[in-house]
């Protein structure tokens, strides 16, 4: 090999020192990598691993609390069927709370001219009623206004099994649905 003035003089000792230096640096970096991997594994175990509140298998076999049961002998045979009887007091509902107030009933009916079947032209009969209670408070006076709405159906259509129209009398909507 021909030496040129541009290339530095590199000796074997210099290369061996450099190799030892790099090996030491490599060992340090490998140790750091192992430490970081262990920290990562511990963090993952803590975050996703099993809970530390496990029951040890030896604890399940402790008979300290069963000692009295094991030593006791049953004096008499217990009955197979046990009957429990009790009474439950029902709480007062809305209706019972309204019984103390006077009641004013407002009846909503269809006019006689509209009580005609739209299907066959026959007369409609009263099928049922719908009732809604509202509380009306007049200063120094409280009363219940009961709104009763008539529902009509045609007997002829019911007998002949034609489409049975059901007609309900109109009624004003409550101020707040479902309230008193």
Topology diagram in text:
Layout: H1 12-48, H2 67-71, H3 94-98, E1 103-108, E2 124-138, E3 141-154, H4 155-160, E4 166-168
Parallel strand pairs: 1-3
Antiparallel strand pairs: 2-3, 3-4
What distinguishing features does this structure have?
21% strand; 29% helix; single chain; elongated; 180 residues; 4 strands; 4-stranded mixed β-sheet; alpha+beta
**Which residues sit in consecutive blocks of at least 5 with pLDDT less than 50?**
none
Mean pLDDT: 80
| Tally of helical runs | 4
Strand content: 15-25%
Reading the helices and strands in chain order gives HHHEEEHE
DSSP strand count: 4
* Overall form: elongated
Whole-number radius of gyration? Answer: 47 Å
Question: What oligomeric assembly is this protein in?
Answer: single chain
Taking the sheet with the most strands, its summary is: 4 strands, mixed
How far apart the termini lie comes to 110 Å
Give the % helix: 25-40%
Account of the 3D structure:
- Strands 1, 2, 3 and 4 form a four-stranded mixed sheet that branches.
- 2% of the residues are buried.
- This protein has helices at 12-48, 67-71, 94-98, 155-160; strands spanning 103-108, 124-138, 141-154, 166-168.
- It has four helices and four strands; from the N terminus they run H-H-H-E-E-E-H-E.
- By secondary structure, it is of the alpha+beta class.
- 29% of the residues lie in helices and 21% in strands.
- Among the domains are: 11-48; 95-168, no CATH class.
- The protein starts with 11 loop residues before the first helix and ends in a 12-residue tail after the last strand.
- The longest helix has 37 residues, at 12-48.
């Amino acid at each position: 090999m021909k030496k040129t003035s541009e290339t530095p003089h590199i000796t074997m000792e210099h290369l061996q020192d450099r190799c030892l230096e790099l090996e030491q640096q490599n060992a340090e970096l490998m140790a750091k990598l192992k430490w970081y991997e262990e920290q990562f594994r511990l963090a993952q175990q803590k975050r996703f691993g099993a809970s530390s509140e496990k029951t040890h298998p030896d604890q399940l076999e402790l008979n300290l609390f069963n000692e009295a049961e094991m030593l006791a002998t049953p004096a008499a045979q217990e009955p197979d069927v046990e009957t429990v009887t009790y009474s439950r007091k029902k709480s007062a509902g809305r209706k019972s709370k309204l019984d103390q107030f006077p009641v004013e009933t407002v009846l909503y009916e269809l006019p006689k001219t509209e009580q005609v079947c739209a299907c066959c032209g026959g007369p409609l009969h009263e099928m049922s009623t719908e009732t809604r209670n509202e509380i009306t408070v007049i200063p120094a006076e409280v009363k219940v206004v009961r709104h009763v709405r008539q529902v009509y159906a045609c007997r002829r259509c019911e007998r002949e099994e034609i489409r049975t129209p059901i007609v309900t009398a109109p009624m004003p909507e409550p101020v707040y649905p479902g309230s008193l």
